[in-house]
Design goal:
The structure holds 2 protein chains of 2 kinds.
Chain A lengths: L4 E3 L2 E4 L5 E6 L6 E7 L6 E7 L14 E5 L5 E5 L8 E8 L7 E2 L3 E5 L1
Parallel strand pairs in A: 2-10
Antiparallel strand pairs in A: 1-3, 3-7, 4-5, 4-8, 6-7, 8-9, 8-10
Chain B lengths: L2 E3 L3 E5 L4 E8 L6 E6 L6 E6 L3 E5 L2 E6 L4 E6 L8 E8 L5 E3 L3 E6 L1
Parallel strand pairs in B: 2-11
Antiparallel strand pairs in B: 1-3, 3-8, 4-5, 4-9, 6-7, 7-8, 9-10, 9-11
The chains are: A mainly beta, B mainly beta.
C-alpha cells in the first residue's frame, strides 16, 4: 500500500479482555516496529521484526503482550487480559531495511475501561 | 545503557528561530534522525545526519557532532503550524533506532 495502515484506529475494551491490533506495513519493507506512546510521552519500543530473523521482543512489558508477523508482511500485536495501564496509542512503523527511515502508521488508540 | 536526552518543552514566538538540542549515549552510532509529531498524529520524518555538520532543508536545519554526541534541530521563521513534538532518534551499532522522549514546542503569536 501507499503507507503503513493500522486497524482499528480506536479500540475501547473492558479490563480483562484480549485485544488484537493489526499493522499493514509498506509493501517491500522488511523491518517492522511496534511502539507504545502514552499521552505526552515519547515512544516506548515494544517489538521489532526484520525479515525472517527471530523478532527482538526485548521491549514487551509483560507476557500478556505478544506479536506475530505472518509471511513477512502483516503484523498483529495481541494484548491478553488487558489492564488499565495498557491504555495508550500503539504505533506501528516499517522501514525498507533495519535502521533506515521509519514510516509510521496513524496508530491505534487503545482505551481499557 | 543507551540514552537520548532532549528538553521536555520549549516555547518560542512566531517568526523567530528556535534550536532544539539532543544529546545521546548509545552503543555505537550509525546516524541520527529528527521526526515531527503533531498532537494525535504519527511521527513524520524531518531529517537525517550521519556525518558531522549542518544539513539544511528549507526552514529546518539539523546539525551533528559525533565527537560530542550532540545534535540540534534549528527551525527558522517559525509558524504556528510548527507547534508539535520533535523526536530525536539514533541508530545504534545494531542498526536499531533508539528514541528520545521528544521536545514539545509551543509557538506563541
Amino acid at each position: 500500500g501507499a503507507g503503513v495502515s493500522q486497524s482499528p484506529s480506536n479500540k475501547v475494551t473492558e479490563k480483562g479482555k484480549d485485544v488484537e491490533l493489526r499493522c499493514d506495513p509498506i509493501s517491500g519493507h522488511t523491518a517492522l516496529y511496534w511502539y507504545r506512546q502514552s499521552l505526552g510521552q515519547g515512544l516506548e519500543f515494544l517489538i521489532y521484526f526484520q525479515g525472517n530473523s527471530a523478532p527482538d521482543k526485548s521491549g514487551l512489558p509483560s507476557d500478556r503482550f505478544s506479536a506475530e508477523r505472518t509471511g513477512g508482511s502483516v503484523s498483529t500485536l495481541t494484548i491478553q487480559r488487558t489492564q488499565q495501564e495498557d491504555s495508550a496509542v500503539y504505533l506501528c512503523a516499517s522501514s525498507l531495511v533495519t535502521g533506515s527511515e521509519a514510516f509510521f502508521g496513524q496508530g491505534t488508540r487503545l482505551t481499557v475501561v | 545503557g543507551q540514552n537520548i536526552d532532549q528538553p521536555t518543552e520549549m516555547t518560542a514566538t512566531e517568526g523567530a528561530i528556535v534550536q532544539i538540542n539532543c544529546t545521546y549515549q548509545t552503543s555505537g552510532f550509525n546516524g541520527l534522525f529528527w521526526y515531527q509529531q503533531h498532537a494525535g498524529e504519527a511521527p513524520t520524518f524531518l531529517s537525517y545526519n550521519v556525518l558531522d555538520g549542518l544539513e539544511e532543508k528549507g526552514r529546518f536545519s539539523s546539525f551533528l557532532s559525533r565527537s560530542k554526541g550532540y545534535s540540534y534541530l534549528l527551525l527558522k521563521e517559525l509558524q504556528m503550524k510548527d507547534s508539535a513534538s520533535y523526536l530525536c532518534a539514533v541508530r545504534d551499532s545494531n542498526y536499531q533506532l533508539i528514541w528520545g522522549a521528544g521536545t514539545k514546542l509551543i509557538i506563541k503569536p
